[in-house]
Amino acid sequence: MTGYSWRHFDPLLLVAALALTAYGALVIYSASLPRGAEGFVLSSEVQRHIGFAAVGALLMIAMTRVDYRLIDALGWLAYGFGIVVLIAVLFLGSEEFGSRRWFDLGFTVVQASEIGKLMTIIGLAKFLTDYRDRLQEFRVFGASLLITALPAALVFLEPDAGSAIVFVALWLVMTAFAGARLRHYLILLAIGLCLIPVGLAANVQDYQRDRIRAFIDPTSDPQGAGFNVIQAETSVGSGGLWGQGLTQGTQTQLDFVRIQTTDFIFTVIGEELGFVGAMVLFGLMILLLFRILRVASRSPEPLGQLLAVGMLTMIAVQAFINVAINIRLLPVTGIPLPFISIGNSSLLMLFVGLGLLQSVLAWREDHRPRGA
């Protein structure tokens, strides 16, 4: 027998997400503190982060009441909505830093790629569930790639290479989990290697080339493309074991690192909270990922498992890329640190996605044993 039951709600999944968000609010508070401010000053950035987190938590709880199996009927509609949003932002989005990634709604901005990621997870989970018995056919395998390649290409055109990479990671992990053949990946890899020179020549823009040069040798342009790379390394490296103290980091408080409430927020953690602060972040993130993995292991059917695997991949890959950029393991590309960076649409979509996973637990078979 299947049905809805609150007793399957995972409180640790909600607690982990809220703890990460609270940690993010603490870091944003320090990063957005006006220079020379005295006493406790709650910036508008912190207020927005807390406000959208509260809305997100309510949406997560509300989504628990929605039977996730509706995706069988509405999955393609959700995917289509995501594609429409990604197309619309290219024509109607507000331009900032040379990119069209956001809809300006006046009271807030909405990043189209964040909607596209969740809708693609839903669409791909629907496809892989419907065709799981035929995924070892190359044409079905190729169709799964096209489902992901379309939103990835639209995001790349914004341009937003970092988010495009997340779409590729979603496809790789979700299809592998669904049982795709290794031989098919190798065929596509060979084709991709042949096309890389053409793609680089045709699509890589000047600012992207500058970022690659800055990654290899930031001192070649220390006041330009290499500036943030150098300052980020200095910030993280100066934190030591315990950090310089919240609101006490010189790089952070003197605004040496640009966009430090979004793409470079890990530098604030590294400088002011040190190695211990970074370990707290990783511990909370690992707790969240393990609770998501638990959803995949307890789901009675492939659809719920694939939704959980997709959410786990999206969060883990974004976290890895963001931290790797901050410590110069990867070239700079704009991508938020989940739950930590400022990003209203990112925060809402993360909580909605976790709400879907709570629905997977809440609507599973009632006779299945409860677990921790």
Describe the protein in words.
It is a single chain. 66% of the residues lie in helices and 3% in strands. The chain has 372 residues and is mostly helical. The protein has a 3-stranded antiparallel beta sheet. Helix 4 packs antiparallel against helix 5. The two termini are 22 Å apart.
Short description:
By secondary structure, the protein is mainly α. Helix content is 66%, strand content 3%.
Detail the topology: elements first, then pairings.
Blueprint: H1 11-31, H2 44-64, H3 71-92, E1 94-96, E2 99-104, E3 109-111, H4 112-130, H5 138-156, H6 161-178, H7 182-203, H8 206-216, H9 227-238, H10 250-253, H11 265-298, H12 302-326, H13 344-362
The count of domains is 1
Q: Distance between termini?
A: 22 Å
How is the quaternary structure best described? single chain
**What is the arithmetic mean of pLDDT?**
88
What characteristic shape results from the CA principal axes? globular
What is the count of β-strands?
Answer: 3
Largest sheet: 3 strands, antiparallel
Low-confidence stretches: 366-372
**In percent terms, what proportion of residues is strand?**
under 5%
Number of helical segments with 4 or more residues = 13
Structural class: mainly alpha
Give the spatial strand order of the biggest sheet: 1-2-3
Element string (H = helix, E = strand): HHHEEEHHHHHHHHHH
Share in helix: 55-70%
